[in-house]
Amino acid sequence: MKRRIVSLLLCASMLLTGILATGCAGDGDDSLTTETGDESSALVRTSMTLTLWVPTECEVDEETGELPEETQDALEEVEAAINKITVSKYDTAIKLYAIPTDDYEEAVKKQMQDIKDRKEKAKKEAEERRKAEREAAKRGETLPPTEKADKEEGENPYDLIVNSSPTHPHVENNQMDIFLVRGYDDYKFYVDNMFVEALDEEINGTSKVLKQYIYPDFLEAAKVDGITYAVPNNHMVGEYTYLLANKELATKYGKTETDLMNIFNNYEFVKSVAENEEGVTPVWGEISPDYIQYWSGQGSGQFSVLATNSKAYDPTKKIEALEGVVFKNVMDVQAFYDSTYYQKLYTENGWISNAESVDNFAYGFVTTTPDVVEEMYGDTHYIYAYRVPQGTLDDYCASMFAVSSHTKDKARAMEIITHLNTQTDLRTILQYGVEGTHWKYDEIDDSVIVKTSDVYKMNINDTGNVYMTYPDYNTPMIWDASKKQNLDSFYPVTYYMTDYVHDGNKEIIAEFDKFCAEIKKEIDGMTAAEFKDQKTRLKDTIDRNPYYQMLTYTNGKYGKTEEDGYFEDNSIVYMWSEKVKLIKEG
């Protein structure tokens, strides 16, 4: 076809496991892959209707609180365009439920609970009916047939008819199939309440092509207790923190680019700038550890005296990386000591500024994107990626498609989710609407689309893999840079074990957290000289703390035994070793 965006969107050279590079598919192309096509065709093919729930950014009518009529008409048109693809390819009609974004989560959760309640009520009534029939039989009686009750008022407020596919079945009253999950907290809610289906069988089977399109870190974050319940939508995660060093000053003071990439070895350089360069800020921005993960009862963002200095790694070597994780007393983590000491030292000397901007600086820490840092500082400063993007669970799980436990058919639902994440045609319709009605190709550059209507609006992160469609209107084509950023990003090791607080150690961890807060307060109150002088004492204080010892206890460490209250099952370090064994065993 003339208008193919594949080469622009998808065929950038991928450095990791061939990800996305193998995912070059065109508009309406039937080639998910030969493997997926063969396997999915083995599914039983009967005409089926599935529901798709998504949030929409279309504005609601201020008086009614509902979507205006013209938006509802647009949704009907989008639904019809979707069904031209899904009915032809899968014999599956889609009923689209687009809920105003502010009301979305409440509507989905209510519908889930309402269906569950209706099913439980029907089950209870059926059991009572069977019991009554047995009792009647004992008396030699036969109960009259149960009259089918009229639909209860408000039982299901959503339209069940797909007007664009009249030959396909209507949506069943208690049916809910594909829906978008926004955020890790909501994801856990659906998992904990058993509102979602496990998807690993499909991801490893008929939908295994997803592994070629979705970054491994996203799929890893979607696991809860080792099980995947949703398919994350690819999007850019995290931010870089760059260390910038002034080229002109480096030359003046005889420093090479390599010399300046470690601020902790350049005290004399910073001191020289401070003493001799009027109008130059020696250090701009906060000095913090580059890659450090804390282990506490409050999560990895909370300071703890138990830490791992975990750097980015290649996900294809995950086991080697996880086996190499070493738990340390935080005072033994050089990155923590150096950053804390020099932050204090430079602050005390007045050599560091946390101002929003400065005109000229020798060293700077800037959090931004690669293109911005190069444009702003490429000519004047050496640029070093001090900290590559670190994903968070909320970031990875910000937008995911799940299959409801009330689905008509999980395998057929996964076909639609797979198509949304690996094909351009359906993905672009759900995001931008109908070609020729809501958008068109630019007349000069057909790699760009132009908005022609405001009645259909969606968030690009909420409608599938962002790299399978165009950037939003008037947005630069940044997909290649975004993909590289995701490849550079790392998945914190703390996310591999989030369940280390349990009944056996929760009181230990609560006391440990209090101890960590005391150590943090003590460190914060020290001068640089005091911190340096007290390093050994602080380390020894931590090592001797019984709660620290219990949480790092393995195989008789510290000369302790169970009689002393030391149990391996309560130790974070021991639990980590067991977790890695499980991951290694698959």
Structure description:
- The chain is an alpha/beta fold and 586 residues long.
- It folds into three domains: 6-126 and 154-236 and 395-488, Periplasmic binding protein-like II (D-Maltodextrin-Binding Protein, domain 2, 3-Layer(aba) Sandwich); 240-292 and 333-388; 493-585, no CATH class.
- Helices cover 39% and strands 13% of the residues.
- It is built from 23 helices and 17 strands.
- The protein has helices spanning 6-9, 34-40, 69-90, 104-138, 184-192, 200-203, 210-213, 216-221, 247-252, 257-260, 267-276, 318-323, 334-348, 370-377, 393-396, 410-422, 424-432, 479-488, 506-524, 528-533, 535-544, 546-551, 572-585; strands at 48-56, 92-100, 178-181, 223-224, 227-228, 230-232, 240-246, 281-284, 293-294, 306-308, 328-329, 352-353, 361-368, 381-387, 400-403, 439-441, 449-451.
- Strands 2-1-3-15-6 form a five-stranded mixed β-sheet. A five-stranded mixed β-sheet has the order 12-8-13-7-14. Strands 9-10-11 form a three-stranded antiparallel β-sheet.
- Helix 3 links the parallel strand 1 and strand 2.
- Helix 3 packs antiparallel against helix 17 (424-432).
- The longest helix has 35 residues, at 104-138.
- Mean pLDDT is 86; it is low at 1-38.
Keyphrases for this structure?
3 domains; disordered N terminus; 39% helix; D-Maltodextrin-Binding Protein, domain 2; single chain; alpha/beta; 586 residues; 23 helices; five-stranded mixed β-sheet
